[in-house]
Amino acid sequence: MKYSILLSTLLLLQACTTFDAYTGEEKTTNTAIGASIGAGIGAVVAYIDNKDEDSRKRNQRILAAAAGGAAVGGGIGYYMDVQEAKLRKQLRDTGVSVEREGNNINLIMPGHITFASNSPNINASFYAVLDSVALVLEEYDRTLVVVSGHTDSDGSHAYNQTLSHHRASSVSYYLSSRGVDEVRLETIGFGETRPVTNNDTSAGKQANRRVEITLLPVEENS
Question: 34-217 maps to which CATH number?
Answer without folding.
Answer: 3.30.1330.60
